[in-house]
Amino acid sequence: MISSLTRVARSATRSTAAQLRQFSVLTATEEFPDVATTSPSPKKGSSSSVTTLASGLTVVTEDASLISTVSLTFPNAGSSSEHTSEAGAALANRYLSFKSGSGLSSALIVRNLEDVGATLFSGAGRRGATLGYTAAKENATFVAPLLATATESSFEKWDVKEAQGLAADESSKFASKPQAVLTDQIYAAAFGAQSSMGRSYYTSGASREAIMSFRERTYTLNGAVLAATGIDDHKAFVRMVEEEFPVAASANPLEPAAADYLGGEARLEKSSGSSLVALAFEGPSSAPIMNVLKHCLGSSAFASKQLVGLYGASSPGDAPATVDALSKTITATPSADVVAAAKAAAKGEALKALGSGSQSLADAMTGSILDSCGFSASALAESYDAVTVEDVTKAHSAMLKSKLAFAAVGDISAVPYHATIESRFS
Questions:
Q1: Which of 124, 247, 390, 422 has the fewest C-beta atoms under 10 angstroms from its C-beta?
Q2: What is the pLDDT of residues 166-200, one digit of tens each?
Q3: Do residues 384 and 288 touch, judged by C-beta distance below 8 A?
Q4: Confidence of residue 252 (pLDDT cuts 50, 70, 90)
Q5: Long-range contacts of 138-142 (CB under 8 A, 24+ apart)
């Protein structure tokens, strides 16, 4: 594996040097984009392909994008998979993306990706972690094996120390953002502050040992998703992955962290001159119905897996009126007209994500694989078309039967308490 990736890295450097010696040749259309072409190329429709390898890695590609994004997602590498002794390890490990691994140095990994014009990205949260890059189609496949270094980190002392420092900085910045803190609080209220889903992702102070044990458990190919856009030959891409990605990193996948919805209250007093509140309930398991329901609730609605609700902000004295307004909105049964408008908005939002750039498309492909084990733009559209008024009405009724989750952040002395608010829904 080490020699294989080293070969890829060295070949990437030689390939880039060769490209730099060539002249750039532009067609008339490329050099004069405003001149109409006499033989326009037909617009190509997107088609997708999915393959799950013996290692447990699922590879999903599409072939219409003009540039390529290749992303590798580890669905169990979020903070919800942290053991109690590993608090903060998910955040710190985000900053070990593209660091030394598989016998390659950080400098070599990054240099070879950037030499082919790749733009790197990484992210993590409660549910999973992702790293990847966007590059020209002709280079994207060639350097894809470098993503596999994420599964064989060397944990160099300087890399880990830097990751710990960056995690501390991000945690500090998070604490100064009231809206982000409110999101943390609604998760604590919904799932319990000490539960895996209720604990904050933005925790610093993870030890080197915690960072290492967390990564070795969660950054495995078994259960991971490799999404690639702009790939003309799915079979060839899969062959490359089978040959270049490490089978040794394919340990048994983790069971998804238990996330039982509980409902409850979380309040955090912060001197801010305003009151931020959020009301939430357990949402439907169907993503299309969840998203339609979210749009039925209006522009201040939010939804994530298992959770749907409303948030609001006001001056401290107006907090009770804000809670009243949110309560009335969330209890109103959506009419047929509201559902029709919400379906159109939710479907448009989902399809827009497919056309909002290569990285957005890769994210959508990954999400679809994790939700339904498949991906198809037409199937995505059909899933929203199939949502009925009855589906939304039942989901709304079931939502209100779950226990209220309520969070408040800021100057909250006038904000009503959970028991008072919940009585409105019984």
A1: 390
A2: 999 999 999 889 999 999 999 999 999 999 899 99
A3: yes
A4: low
A5: 139/15, 140/67, 140/68, 140/69, 140/70, 140/228, 140/230, 140/231, 141/68, 141/70, 141/228, 141/231, 141/236, 141/237, 141/240, 142/8, 142/11, 142/12, 142/15, 142/116
Give yes or no for a contact between 63 and 82, defined as CB atoms under 8 angstroms apart: no
Mean pLDDT, to the nearest integer, of 127-154? 92
Provide the pLDDT for residue 38. 37
- Kind and range of the H or E element at 260? none
Nearest CA-CA partner of 65 in 44, 38, 91, 96: 44
Inter-residue contact 380 to 291 (CB < 8 Å): no
Helical segments of 219-357, H only: 234-244, 287-296, 319-331, 336-354
CA distance 366 to 369: 5
Instruction: Compute how many other C-beta atoms are within 10 angstroms of the C-beta atom of residue 233.
Output: 13
Can you tell me the distance from the alpha carbon of 307 to that of 186, in angstroms, rounded to the nearest whole number?
9
Instruction: Name the token pair of 374.
Output: 């498949």
Rg of the chain taking only CA atoms, in angstroms: 24
CA distance 329 to 297: 7
Residue 72 forms beta bridges with which residues? 131, 226
Q: What is the DSSP string of 91-109?
A: HHHHTTTT-SBTTB-HHHH
Beta 58-62 vs 67-74: how paired, if at all?
A: unpaired
Question: What is the rounded distance in angstroms from the CA atom of residue 65 to the CA atom of residue 362?
Answer: 10
φ, ψ dihedrals at 162, nearest 5°: -65, -40
- pTM of the entire structure? 0.85
| Calpha distance 50→365 (Å, rounded) | 10
Secondary structure element (H or E) that encloses residue 123, with its range: strand 119-124
Cα atoms found within 13 Å of the Cα of residue 223, Cβ hemisphere only: 16
Beta bridge partners of 59: 51, 226
C-alpha span between 248 and 55 (Å, rounded): 9
Contact present, 140 and 240 (Cβ < 8 Å): no
Give the contacts of 109 (CB within 8 A, at least 6 positions apart).
9, 98, 99, 100, 101, 146, 149
What is the identity of the amino acid at 83?
H
Q: From CA 54, how far away is CA 248, in angstroms rounded?
A: 12
pLDDT of 47: 86
